Amino acid sequence: MLSTTTLRASAPAILATRHLFLTSGTRVACCGLLHGVQTRKFTGSANSFFLATTPKTNQERHLKAFRERSFPHPVYTEAQMDDIKIAHRKAKTWGDWVALAAVRVTRKCFDLATGYRHDSAIASGNKNPYGASAFHMTPEKWLARFIFLESIAGVPGMAAGMIRHLNSLRRLKRDNAWIETLLEEAYNERLHLLTFLHYRQPGLFMRAMILGAQGVFFNLFFISYLVSPRTCHRFVGYIEEEAVITYTRAIADIENGRIPEWENLLAPDIAIKYFGMKPDANMLQLLRVIRADEAKHREVNHTLANMSQDEDPNPYALIYKDSKPHPTKGLDFVKPEGWEKGEIDGGAVEEFMKPGQEWKTGKKPVGGSPTSTTGTTPASTT
């Protein structure tokens, strides 16, 4: 017999087989045999944004067939995820103002494309401020927004990493360990997208929107990064501020009972493995982890925008002498508005911010690894 957990996770897929001329009992049995032990699959939808699909046994290769991921994801504690808050860095320079204006225009277009509206009364904890008939974001609208958001969010890190990679090859110089962090950010955003695709498959209209948006955005970001990489990192920092707002409101909707369909919806296997979540993790816990990721991208890009783009090493790849607050890969020390150069441990950074000195002297700082406050893992020399 199928367990309660299996039936719960497979229920959307079972409903997607309603075109088969089977009784309800036979339908459940057939789907159970089809899925086997794989309890998290794609679901169908009648929403106009999506193409309803039925899971196939050969749709994906089982995750055990792959080796460990090149970019392991840090495991966040519940307390660390609770501390994630909506924050905004005030614009201080002309580049900041340009980046902020671009984000506001992008946000307006993005809201229009995904049908997004959200009232502050809902996020504040009022389950039904204007009655049951009032507009609210349905699961389909939330997933449309998530998929569209993550399909674009993976562009900046890859474009910036590619430009810096080619620059390093062309100039025959090291990149001061920026490339790996940028590529890891792009990889993380793509995993967010793959996770949400386990719940909905976009239809032709949304696929066309993603294709057009990516084509326009990639070329604009590529050219802009050649002109002013600092402004581009600030732009991404502001974009991630908006992403934190989006996921915070989605979490509030679940916690306030406005999306009952997601209260018992299990996280897919790809998320369980990548994020290091518990096997019975649900949609609420998944969104909390993804929001923490976006908050980290917010901090990283604001920090990189504060650095010298040609001379300073990536502060997230340095080894620090002690446990004083410093940039880390995880959420050990959180700075929503980014780290200023003067806030980073001068003992570990100042001496090695001078181009080439570390490689000429052979000296390296001692202390914890870039991803934690303890240990002796050497820093990346990418």
TrEMBL record:
GO biological process, one term: alternative respiration
GO terms assigned for molecular function: alternative oxidase activity; metal ion binding
EC top class named in words: oxidoreductase
Signal peptide (from-to): none
Textual note on the cofactor: Binds 2 iron ions per subunit.
Keyword Iron: yes
Entry's localization field: Mitochondrion inner membrane
Annotated transmembrane regions: 142-163, 204-227
Location of the region described as Disordered in the Swiss-Prot/TrEMBL record: 353-382
Assigned GO CC terms: mitochondrial inner membrane; respiratory chain complex
Domain of life assignment: Eukaryota
Compositionally biased region (Low complexity): 366-382
Family as reported in the entry's similarity comment: Belongs to the alternative oxidase family.
Function: Catalyzes cyanide-resistant oxygen consumption. May increase respiration when the cytochrome respiratory pathway is restricted, or in response to low temperatures.
Protein name: Alternative oxidase
